[in-house]
């Protein structure tokens, strides 16, 4: 799991999304060292429900 400090990072959201999709990993976004959000890959269940 990768951690990115939003105040110290100037990464395009597209780069983060591509990494998550490619690696099926998650990224925790932090602000001043504290977690504020988590981005995880979306999975589609076989039953068709969300």
Bulk shape:
elongated
Helix-residue proportion: 10-25%
The first-to-last residue Cα distance is 24 Å
Number of strands: 3
Order of helices and strands: EHEE
- Stretches with pLDDT under 50, minimum 5 residues: none
Q: What does the radius of gyration come to?
A: 13 Å
Structure description:
The protein is an alpha+beta fold. The protein contains one helix and three strands, in the order βαββ. The chain has one helix at 13-23, and strands at residues 2-5, 27-31, 34-39. A three-stranded mixed sheet has the order 1-2-3, covered by helices on one side. Strand 2 and strand 3 form a beta hairpin. It is elongated and about 40 Å long. The mean pLDDT is 86.
Task: Chart the SSEs and their pairings.
Blueprint: E1 2-5, H1 13-23, E2 27-31, E3 34-39
Parallel strand pairs: 1-2
Antiparallel strand pairs: 2-3
List keywords for this structure.
single chain, 50 residues, alpha+beta, three-stranded mixed beta sheet, 22% helix
Task: State the gist of this model.
With 50 residues, the chain is an alpha+beta fold. Helix content is 22%, strand content 30%. The protein has a 3-stranded mixed beta sheet with strand order 1-2-3, with helices on one face.
